[in-house]
Amino acid sequence: xxxxxxxxxxxxNHLATRMAQGMGSPFFSYTSSNNHVFxxxxxxxxxxxxxxxxxxxxxxxxxxxxxxLDTIRTTVRVEPAPQQWPFQYTGSPSYTYVLNxxxxxxxxxxxxxxxxxxxxxxxxFAVKDTLxxxxxxxxxxxxxxxxxxxxxxxxxxxxxxSADTTDTIRIYFPNGDGSVWIENQTYxxxxxxxxxxxxxxxxxxxxxxxxxxxxxxxSAYGRCDRLSSxxxxxxxxxxxxxxxxxxxxxQGRGYAPAAQDSLIxxxxxxxxxxxHHIWSAPGDSNRAFRIVHIPITNPRFLKKGFQFRWVNYAxxxxxxxxxxxxxxxxxxxxxxxxxxxxxxxxxxxxxxFLREYTAMPWTQxxxxxxxxxxxxxxxxxxxxxxxxxxxxxILDQNNGVFNAYPANYNPSALDTSVIGPYANSGYxxxxxxxxxxxxxxFALGGFFPLQDSATFKIKHxxxxxxxxxxxxxxxxxxxxxxxxxxxYDDGTAEVAAWLGVPxxxxxxxxxxxxDTLYGISIYFSPVxxxxxxRNIDLHVWRNLDDDPLYTExxxxxxxxxxxxxxxxxxxxxxxxxxxxxxxxLTSGPFYxxxxxxxxxxxxxxxxxxxxxxxxxxxxxGQSWETLDIPxxxxxxPMVANDFNLDQLSNPTQAPETPLLVYPNxxxxxxxxxxxxxxxxxxxxxxxxRELCRYPSNGDLRQTFSLPNTAIGTYLLKVNLSExxxxxxxxxxxx
Length: 734
Known about the structure:
Mean pLDDT: 85
Shape: globular
CATH architecture of the largest domain: Sandwich
Number of helices: 2
Strand content: 35-45%
Strand order of the largest sheet: 1-2-13-4-8-9-5-12
């Protein structure tokens, strides 16, 4: 887990993902290009518990699964099979007429047939509809001068089927990843909530899984995020006292949902395939988390295939109207008074080990930049005091531990004490846990000065000396990057900041050594106004009272064809602009920012968990003012000579092996540039089907021709010679 947690950014082009209304099906489906692809869901068993301290959302990358099976399914079948094909039928009962020995007419009702349709959009093998028909007969009874007889007067059948029909579908099967949730629209994080039960919550707002508004009209209102469980085996009697509980908080560190907004809970009847409203809460301002208990007693839900989901109603035009959800627990033999969890857990940990910044360029970091005291929050959710031990490990690029607490610190290697219940004592105040020392000297250890980009990992862990209800929240990992940028923010925009009038905004940074500014990154947070077509003027200053050192007009909405700018299409994804000319900077302070000369809002992400307001300035008149709102605008200067658009670092993740694929979008060919030896590259469509395989000739830069592919989004999977792989999205256009 990182801080903030991953939001599954590698879900690439799964915009068409949807849950269809089915009959308790074990399948999840989506339609992409010309393929119908299904993910078979594993049915969950009780107890079910998730506090969102780890990522338990279902993934949809094709390479995450074994190759899909091409399966033949029946789409239309006639039962019983007719005596001959094609089968002509009528919706009205038909008869067979014969003359008996007395020259009288006997009539016999024809055997009815069922035309069964198997085109359910969720379960490819479930019956969607059944039509009762009879074999068509051209005979009918007529009267001729008062005498009953059989005549053959031509009539048209009501339908014709040439044969039972089938098609081929592709099915991915579960891989035992422990996932619980189907959709990825909500946002798992460590930053949006105020005093959650444990580390990690899931947040509902007005943006989808990629951080894009559901509707950018500004006034659109309706259903937004959805969080649905996988099917659950709930075949238990009501006497088993089944309860679903969860913790909920409006607003948190974000925006309060309005009075007309709401968060609702729905249960699914697996036999009827219908969702039923169970619980809801109206919008409200920030308050402490409260626990909600829902008994499950209705027989319609006590079946295999039961599901539950939350949906929020909100403004659909941006990152606002927030709800935080935590500690979901579904089990038997519970009661409404069951509010105690025998669980000792992290609530938060120090997200970085720098004194002022959250990230620094590797060319700038020195020992005085390192913070030597950390802040942790640890909670005991139970009713009894618990004996536990705390420690942390610092890992290098190769995951080797080079510093450990408390082993490398006095007074002992086993730091054990007692933590009281949160209800009585609050978070732990034992200083060796809540404020542990970090006195490692990177310079003496041979790390500083860094010779290249580096990423360190901090692993905090609790050792339980008693049984613990949930072990996942006993370990928290955070990443400390030293790459090519300065940052005050943690990568998560709880709210947005803006200038509603023409003016300037600027952020102050400080170079320990002379360096070169190559680019500027900004997170433009989507809130109500769609300003992607707007322009701003980037500025760089040595001193805010002097003329800028550099100016450049840029567009907020970056075109995919722009070779000098890149927008990361994910929640909290930054937009990075490469300067037209790299700007040398001496040691000391410098400022980056922009000028907007029109009356519109440039909504910039604002991190409420880190206060850099003393370094943020704005000017809407003749003089500069300091920001008086605690927080950190999400602006970052990009320095160091390893900078390129395809190596944009995220402060919450260790960078993967960077690849460069250009031009992107491509037409008939593309060039692959890899920093490491690779063996083969595979072009995949959106379903994971291999379209073309490119072998390496040993060069790190190679150009390839595209096969005759349709316009759309594809994936290039590059297998690295030393093991592992990297994936890049490739757009194809005319």
